[in-house]
Design goal:
single chain, 400 residues, alpha+beta, 2 domains, 4-stranded antiparallel β-sheet, 16 helices, 6 strands, 49% helix, binds zinc ion
């Protein structure tokens, strides 16, 4: 089977997943990529939990170099970057498409009068002389790099009163941008460009990825402020699609993330190590809450299992699992309320382990695991109450 035959077979077996005439998706399809990106990012705590306390010390001591490679979570780092890039790309394309579909169209390379810049392009679109390049008889859409150039050119054009009064497309764009004026930011443009650059690097070779220190910095300090504003500006389109951004204990994760402010250089400053430690541990807590709360999909939040149609009470089952674990596991010592799902399904464990800092003595090591939402915390992240994420302590002293 050659490519054309295989493609014909694929085309005859496609299903539209986004809006159709009688079906409008909430939220728009590109929010799936935001979810994928955030879930991959949140998962980087679990994959690194046993050494998170070393990671959280930053880069001002010898642990930094040792943990650069150890703390890299290749899969989740890659999916975080690709997910965010696709989300922003499709979101910005959607804004341009709303103004005029040709704003994201490829220029026909053999056109007699090819537009030389974005102003030319909008003039041609307006007077009907623009020729789009077709792929299989359909208008092809431009890559993200060109999308960004056109979008930010359009922002510049929309600030020029003469251009605005002469061109209906620029006028319409200005109107559309009104609720998205936060995008008019060189910082945001730089973040989009960086994601585009990383996406290309990953898809073209994939040999180099950012360290977790840079990933945490990029996501919490550069990307999340944009996400918060996009969601705010699209409240009516988002619906319940981002349910996992609030835990069942009413912790608003984006709001908490937005309270964490630091510069990347702080990670290298020995006199900032306490602040760095606090911030990175706090980020670890929020990641785990985001990962765990997502495991409870919308039906599960109403105590309806997602795929076990005949079963009616998964919440009660989780309580039984926790009780069984407490009664039958030698290391399980008590049950408490989960800071993520609020159920009494959080089992506290304790083991005795060699204390390498004080050999040959032993010391107690603790962790908690929830049998309803899958929340998991190793003692080295400290108690969630230290970060105001839980009223009650879930770990015993000295972690609280
Ligand atoms: Zn839970």
């Amino acid at each position: 089977m050659n490519f054309e035959q295989l493609k014909a077979l694929a085309l005859s077996n496609e299903i539209r997943v986004s809006d159709t005439e009688d079906y409008f998706r909430t939220p728009p399809v590109y929010y799936d990529s935001l979810t994928h990106a955030l879930q991959a990012f949140f998962s980087t705590y679990l994959t690194n939990n046993s050494s998170y306390n070393y990671y959280a010390q930053g880069l001002s001591n010898k642990h930094g170099d040792i943990h650069k490679r150890d703390s890299l979570d290749e899969d989740n780092t890659m999916f975080t970057l690709i997910g965010f890039e696709r989300f922003f790309e499709l979101f910005i394309k959607d804004l341009l498409r709303t103004v005029n579909a040709n704003l994201i169209a490829y220029v026909e390379p053999n056109a007699k009068n090819k537009p030389s810049n974005t102003l030319d392009l909008v003039k041609q679109i307006q007077d009907g002389t623009f020729t789009a390049r077709l792929f299989d008889g359909k208008v092809g859409s431009i890559p993200f790099k060109i999308t960004l150039k056109r979008f930010y050119d359009m922002i510049s054009l929309s600030k020029d009163d003469v251009t605005c009064s002469n061109n209906e497309i620029v006028r319409k764009f200005k109107e559309e941008l009104r609720i998205h004026s936060y995008l008019d930011s060189p910082e945001y443009l730089a973040t989009f460009q960086l994601l585009n650059w990383y996406r290309d690097k990953i898809l073209h070779s994939g040999n180099d990825l950012p360290t977790m220190w840079f990933l945490d910095y990029l996501v919490t300090q550069k990307i999340m402020p944009i996400i918060i504003q996009i969601i705010e500006s699209q409240k009516d389109k988002v619906g319940k699609g981002l349910f996992y951004l609030e835990t069942l204990t009413k912790i608003n994760l984006l709001e908490k993330f937005s309270q964490i402010k630091y510069e990347f250089e702080d990670l290298f400053r020995p006199n900032q190590i306490q602040d760095v430690l606090f911030n990175l541990l706090y980020i670890g807590h929020l990641k785990e809450l985001g990962r765990a709360t997502y495991t409870l999909k919308l039906p599960m939040r109403e105590n309806r299992p997602t795929y076990e149609y005949a079963y009616r009470d998964p919440r009660q089952r989780a309580r039984r699992f926790a009780e069984t674990e407490k009664d039958n596991c030698a290391e399980a010592i008590s049950i408490s309320s989960c800071p993520c799902c609020a159920e009494a399904t959080l089992v506290l464990y304790r083991i005795e382990a060699l204390d390498y800092g004080n050999l040959p003595n032993y010391r107690n090591i603790h962790w908690v695991k929830c049998y309803y939402c899958d929340y998991y915390l190793w003692y080295n992240l400290y108690d969630p109450s230290v970060f105001n994420l839980s009223k009650d302590m879930v770990l015993p002293p000295p972690y609280s």
